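Fold it.
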Amino acid sequence: ISGLTEMDTVRFSGQRVSGEIQPLAAMLGPVEFTLLDRRTISPLAVAPWSEDQGPAHDGLPGVLKRLRGDWVCVPFGMTAVPQGLPDDWQPKPEALPAGTDDAPHGYCSNHLWSLQSKGIGGVQADIEYPHHHPISHIRRIVEARTGDTAVDINLIVHPRRDITLPIGL
């Protein structure tokens, strides 16, 4: 689905599950699960400011602008190594070079993904990283599990080279 903005979402649904995913950070939420006793629950939080607009909201890192439920952090963590870490906490030589990511929790948590509907039951999300980054691209597939009260989420990370990175889900 081309031309989506950070304010758009793509819906998916199954027999007992429905939800949405947004292009910004490919964040999942809200998601509603219909239990066998017909009660509906929506366990993924959506930040109360997620629909705000204006200069203060625009100044937030992407990961915070429309914060909701579930998303991917590659790499997980801060953008710079904190000062004063013990020697055994220092980054390994093969770790992410300083300055590679400009925002907390990695490029994918702060930028727009390309979304593609996978029929009514799922969404495929893809993001290409900048050419200088050791990650080439990431694919995330979110699907309502057929006949069940569940969502299956698959994550495929394509590196450009061998690298050790923390990943957060």
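The chain has a mean pLDDT of 87.
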